[in-house]
Amino acid sequence: MDIRKSTMADLPKLSEIYENARAFMRQTGNPNQWGDNHPPQSAIEADIHNGDSYVCVNGDEILAAFFFSTEADSTYTVIDGNWLNDKPYGVIHRIARAENAKGAGAFCINWCFQQIPNLRIDTHQDNTVMLNLLEKLGFVRCGIIWLENGEERIALQKVI
After folding, report:
1. What is the 3-state secondary structure (H, E, C) of the chain?
2. Cα separation of 119 and 156, whole Å?
3. Alpha-carbon distance 134 to 119, whole Å?
4. What are 97's strand-pairing partners?
5. Which tens digits make up the pLDDT trace of 31-61?
6. How far apart are CA 31 and CA 50, in angstroms?
7. CA distance 112 to 107
């Protein structure tokens, strides 16, 4: 497996991966986090244009997609709880894997940690699959943050 930046040519596969992820979330008791259309194609396109969209590939096959940035995230400014530190950090959003790509999510998260060994991520309280993966990978629950639309998310951080 390898990681590369996404391109506009990847959009059809990214759309398929996110649709499969929404279906998986519904099946595993998390129907509300991404609903029927998150992330919208406009957000994916913006991520690609801004250089923040990445894919995990095996040869020519796209196994997973995610947003990764080392810019401060405004939704992480206010937290009900405490971050582990205030040092520069990387942030992961919109991570999803193809239906038969077991292990790709962990590979992506570990790759991000290699880029900057201080990561922040958030997820919905009903996303037990992601919460279990993050805790298995060494993330610590730090508190609650709020998205721009006011929805709560569990905030987690991993440091070296």
Report:
1. CEEEECCHHHHHHHHHHHHHHHHHHHHCCCCCCCCCCCCCHHHHHHHHHHCCEEEEEECCEEEEEEEEECCCCHHHCCCEECCCCCCCCEEEEEEEECCCCCCHHHHHHHHHHHHCCEEEEEECCCCHHHHHHHHHCCCEEEEEEECCCCCEEEEEEEEC
2. 8
3. 11
4. 64
5. 889 888 899 999 999 999 999 999 999 999 9
6. 29
7. 9
Phi, psi of 62 (to 5 degrees): -85, 120
